[in-house]
Amino acid sequence: MPKGRYRLFGIVMDLSSGGLAVESPGLKVQPMEKVEYALSIPHAGLRLERIQMAPVSDAILADHTDSEDGVCHRRGFCFGPMSPAQQERLHRILQSYTDVSLLD
């Protein structure tokens, strides 16, 4: 199990007030208990840090063109308890995410 801080990047494929689904090509690290995550929407300047999420699903997508080895993980997470400030930030992220999704 890795020690210290490390970063894993993925593309948010689905986002709601209850959790999210992330796709990440070539992801080797397994989800662990008691890990804190950050959710960032760079184009909107929004970031939600120190959120707890529990994995609820893990699917392997074979023949994925964005990955060197052709494998991509799609993982589902549910959000843990959040402070009122975190809930407000998540609400703003959801609003931004919804606005951008409507433009696509």
Question: Average pLDDT, to the nearest integer?
Answer: 76
The secondary structure category is: alpha+beta
How many separate helices? Answer: 1
* Strand portion: 35-45%
User: Whole-Å distance between the termini?
Assistant: 39 Å
- What Rg is obtained from the alpha carbons, in whole angstroms? 14 Å
CATH superfamily placement = predicted glycosyltransferase like domains
Major sheet, described briefly? 5 strands, antiparallel
Helix-strand sequence: EEEEEH
Helix content: 10-25%
Sequence stretches where pLDDT stays below 50 over 5 or more residues: none
Strand order of the largest sheet: 1-2-5-4-3
CATH class descriptor: Mainly Beta
The CATH topology is Thrombin, subunit H
Report on this model:
The chain has one domain: Beta Barrel (Thrombin, subunit H). With 104 residues, it is an alpha+beta fold. The mean pLDDT is 76. The radius of gyration is 14 Å and the shape is globular. A five-stranded antiparallel beta sheet has the order 1-2-5-4-3. The protein is 19% helix and 42% strand. The protein has one helix and five strands, in the order βββββα. 12% of the residues are buried.
What would a concise description of this structure say?
With about 100 residues, the protein is α+β, with helices and mostly antiparallel strands. The protein has one helix spanning about 85-104, and strands at about 10-15, 20-25, 35-40, 45-60, 70-80.
